[in-house]
Amino acid sequence: MKFSDRLIREFFNTHFENSKTKINSDAMVLIAEVLKLLVMEGAMRTAHQAKQEGSDTVTLEHLEKILSQLILDFS
Fold first, then answer.
1. Distance CA 46, CA 65 (A)
2. Contact 8, 31 (CB under 8 A)
């Protein structure tokens, strides 16, 4: 899994107060790695939630159940 530099830049640029703010390449690598870990952990927790409920299909409801704890763990 890989997040494109363009996607990361566009996401952060929408949240920067100063339009001249830039992200250097080392920061891009770290941000991409954190995003990758967040997505992988979320997918694993969501699959585990579905399995605990006896479901063999992961749904949005399973993600919603784990999302608050995932956000707390990554903040």
1. 8
2. yes
Q: Please, are residues 40 and 28 in contact by the beta-carbon 8 Å criterion?
A: no
Predicted model pTM: 0.79
Closest C-alpha to 9, from 28, 29, 37:
28
Both tokens assigned to 65: 């159940």
Q: Read off the tokens for 52.
A: 């605990």
**Is residue 45 within a helix (H) or strand (E), and if so which, with residue range?**
helix 25-52
Tell me the two tokens of residue 41: 């952990």
pLDDT digits (tens, 9 = 90+) for 44-61: 999 999 999 999 999 999
